[in-house]
Amino acid sequence: MIFLGPTVVLYFALTIYPVLVTFYNSLHTLRMDLGMLTEFVGLEHFREILTSDDVFWRAARNSLTWGLVAPVIDIPLALMLALTLHARVPFARVFRTVWFTPVLMSYPVVGVIWLWVYNYDWGMANLVLRAVGLGDLAQAWLASPATALPALILVTTWMFAGFNMVVLLAAIHAIPAEYLEAATVDGAAGWRRLLHIIVPLLRPTIVNLAILDFIGKMKQFALVWVMTRGGPMWGTETVATYVVKRAFEWKTLDLGYPSAIAVIWFVIIFGLSLLLTRVLQRREALEF
Amino acid sequence: MRGFIRSLLLAASVWSAGVGIAQAVELQWWSHWAIEDSKKAVLFEAKRRFEQRNAGNSVTITFYEKKNMWPALRAAFTAGSGFPDVFYYDMDVPEFMTAGWLADLSNGVRWENIEPFGKAFWTRPGAGGKTGIWAIPVEAASDEIYYNKKLFKQLGITVPASFAFTQDQFKDVVGKCAKAGYAAFATGASDREWAAHYIPNALLLDTLGAEDFRRLAQGEISFKDPRVVEVFRYYKELIDLGAYAKTLSSMTLAEAHRYFHTEQKACMFPVGSWYTGRAFVPPDKGGQPKDFELGMLNNPVMKDGKGHGQKFLGVAGSLGVAAKSPNLPLAVKVADAFADVEIGNMWMAKTGVQTGIKTDPAKIDSPLKWYFDEYARVNKTTKWIDLTAQQVRLLMKPGLWETYVATVNQGLPNKLIGPDEALARLEEARLKGK
Fold first, then answer.
1. Residue B215 included in any domain
2. Contact of B423 with B228, CB cutoff 8 Å
3. Mind listing the pLDDT tens digit for each residue in B207-231?
4. ipTM of the complex
5. Buried b (16+ CB within 10 A) or exposed e, B319-336
6. Same-domain check for residues B46 and B130
7. Are B203 and B324 in a shared domain?
8. Per-residue pLDDT for B236 more than 70?
9. Is some CB atom of chain A closer than 8 A to the CB atom of B248?
10. Measured between beta carbons, which residues in chain A are less than 8 angstroms from residue B95?
11. Which of B99, B401, B416 is facing A253, going by the closest CB pair?
């Protein structure tokens, strides 16, 4: 108990207490007109958010899109990279380092790099398009809601493919060689071996990665803040950026309304994570 | 005996040193203008003067880009710790006054050295409705439309004697620029939420006049008002002609300056008259090239407009003091160091930007005299309206301002929405805003 003490105190101070304060704030509002008084408003914030806040719903849709689309792209890509390395292609060590490096960079650095990539005049994306004769497709990628969110999703894919790859590579290495050899002897090679042997054996790892990826994207803030600040026209607004704007940029100074958004979003992420775990995870565990 | 005296002297010196250490205060000052050397020079001079007059105390200035400074300040003030004693302040965050985070500077500042308009600007209701004077008006600026004289000449554009194009002429100018491959306006909206507001604000001011413009911002006039609709539709025509660069949404304010005067890819630059603070430094520090020919325009004259000859002018970058600074009397003295005609003169001479501090023009020896003359010539008959693009936020309800930014700073200039959709969204926000 003595050893646990400091950790428990820190956990309560830095995690439990802020969560409780957020729940408390969500039921109150700040009245600047009454000399910064806090007033109890019950579920009023929740009613307003759910019934008449268009920006919240837009932000929720963007976050959900990101959360659902990213794992679908990230994990197959990471699996492909992991299999490439597993096959011991030439320069595998170099590739592993290069692919893993982006995850070591902070969001602001990545954001600035990709702002350059997406620059209309001299960004690499448009330079490549112009060089291959597709200049007509060159555009201001972050200036339209139609392209801005996909452009940001691509950035996180670039950033986290390496991390997912390393985890999957470790899981592939953990598959007993006899399984793969037996499959080969039985005539399962190439795609069949991948789809019927490797992927099922990797399922627990893939499910965990997918859930982590989903939760990470649902909380996305820093990259959006650096690259688009939620614009244009709320096209990349996420729930996290909207909460920060309402809490720290609106001149109301009210933490009640943004806290209510945070509470709603906490419940949604928690619920969806549970649901995903149930749907994706098989009850019978594979043992090897 | 000698040993006793020696011990006594040693003890006395240690005590006095201890007292000295206890009294010495290092004040913290957070400031915007991280990349504006001419303004920093004035700030350092004020700091030097304070330290000279208050021996033993010192000031440490930490420079920020203000976009990043506001959230840090808000977090520190909300937490009640970690905030600086003195800080850059302007109307981007009017809520700081009502939250009670700013010290009332009514006493302790030599207000006789501050222009009455500057003092009046910061005399407002604060926390609990109690009126105070909340900041030193260091910088004042008008909303201007600068232009590239050489480019205008090259494109055969002649500026009228009044420096104001008519509505049709202005459209023609935008069209000529775009046709020649230039953006009409060098606007970069990626790091300023009001960067693309200058032109629509100017058009609305000229059409509605100051009083109705204010009422529109305050939500007292509908965005469906036919005059407003007319302005937005006209503005959309300018946008469709190619008024803005495709890099609008990714270009920063600093990059927009270079886009205008160094790369010379745009004919005009609608921006605050604090343009000079960034532009009038050596070219290797981001300033305009020596041979760049800078011109100034007045707002376009709209048909049947009520605001002809009017322009926005307001107090901009200022200096506030934290109400809960543990070193409040000294912090007020730092602010007071700016209430000095010599500092006002230095500000004008170095930056070329107006100031709310009193100046003595006879004693301003500046290489920027040509600019002051040009400014005076263009604005000879201007009727100044106490407001700027940045300060419109002050008038708008929360929610309406955010929609104004989304539609006017992003949606319209990026051609994502048309004027009717923009106005519908604004009207909805006007009716809904808190």
1. yes
2. yes
3. 999 999 999 999 999 999 999 999 9
4. 0.79
5. bbbbbebebeebbbbbbb
6. yes
7. no
8. yes
9. yes
10. 32, 251-253
11. B99
- Across the range B332-336, mean pLDDT stands at 97
Distances (CA, A) of B310 to B110, B146, B298: 32, 16, 9
Contact across the interface for B250 and A52, Cβ inside 8 Å = no
Residue of B nearest to A147 (CA): B416
Residue A66 to residue A228: CA distance in whole angstroms: 15
- Output the six-digit token pair for B264: 């010379």
B37-52 residue pLDDT tens: 899 999 999 999 999 9
User: Quick check: B127 and A233 CB within 8 A?
Assistant: no
User: Whole-model pTM?
Assistant: 0.83
Q: What is the CATH number of the domain that holds B37?
A: 3.40.190.10
CATH no. of A4-280: 1.10.3720.10
Q: Say if residue A202's pLDDT is above 70.
A: yes
Residues composing chain A: 288
Phi, psi for residue B424 in degrees, rounded to 5: -65, -40
Contact A233 B411 (CB under 8 A): yes
Q: Read off the amino acid at residue B299.
A: N
Query: Could you tell me the CA-to-CA distances from B182 to A140, B151, B169, B177, B243 in Å, in that order?
Result: 17, 9, 17, 5, 9
Can you give the residue range of the structural domain that contains B333?
A: 26-139+316-364
B49 close to B59: Cβ distance less than 8 angstroms: no
Contact A253 B71 (CB under 8 A): no
Query: Is B19 a domain residue?
Result: no
Q: Which of B229, B317, B306 is nearest to B273 (CA)?
A: B317
- Asked whether residue B211 falls in the same domain as residue B270, the answer is yes
**Number of compact structural domains in chain B:** 2
Best mean pLDDT range from A52-56, B3-7, B225-229: B225-229
Tens of pLDDT, residues A230-286: 989 999 999 999 999 998 888 888 889 999 999 999 999 999 888 888 887 765 555
A36 C-beta neighbours (distance < 10 Å), count? 14
Exposure pattern of B7-27 as b/e (b: 16+ CB <10 Å)? Answer: eeeeeeeeeeeeeeeeeebeb
Residue B76 lies in a domain: yes
- Average pLDDT for A114-125: 92
